[in-house]
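The material for today's practical consists of a large collection of protein records. Getting from the letters to the tokens is the skill we practise here. To make this concrete, we reproduce a full record directly below:
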Amino acid sequence: MDDWDLSSDSSDQSDLNEPNEIDKELDLSKSDIDDQKLFAISKMLTNDKNIEMLDLSNNTFGDQGLGYLCDALIQNKTLQVLNLSFNDITEQGYMQLARTLGKNKGLKAVLAIPNDYSVLTPDVLDEFVKYLKNNTRLVALQLEIVYRDPRINAILERNADLDWPNIKKAIADIAIGLYPLDIPPYVVLEIIDNMGYKHLPEIKKIEILQKVQRFTKK
């Protein structure tokens, strides 16, 4: 039996087990959330111990609202996946997000695709590289749909290497139809799908991708 024989039964399982605990995902996408509404959400998030995935994509908040959220993210250690895509965040807002990720201790995946790619200036990307060097937890960061800065990818892969035992356990859970409790399925999907993670053989990668997608909206 090789190292990647993760399941005694590799056949397709139609009834995957869902988490039997309080819902850990909060989807607030397309909810007309402006800066003031995000202030209230951020205040709640500061000491929250339950929510692991927060989707704030396709709203109307800008740098001010993001600032409130960044203050909360420095304190929050529970949130693991955050989607900030398609909001009114400027170059300065992305700079602040980069600095915050250098201090955050919980997030494993961040999506922050802008409405206008021109805000992702070389200075912004340099700022992410600078501060992500201090972050050993984040393993997925999507700022653009296609292009990924190789310097950022190198940092994310370094972090995935450091967290490999937990990642492998999550993959093993998914392989037998269990919802992984330590690492959200979306994070596993990002690692396998977008990073082509080197520890996972190609044939096993395809099998796990098929199963992990049942736990995600992607």
Remarks:
- The chain is about 45% helix and 5% strand.
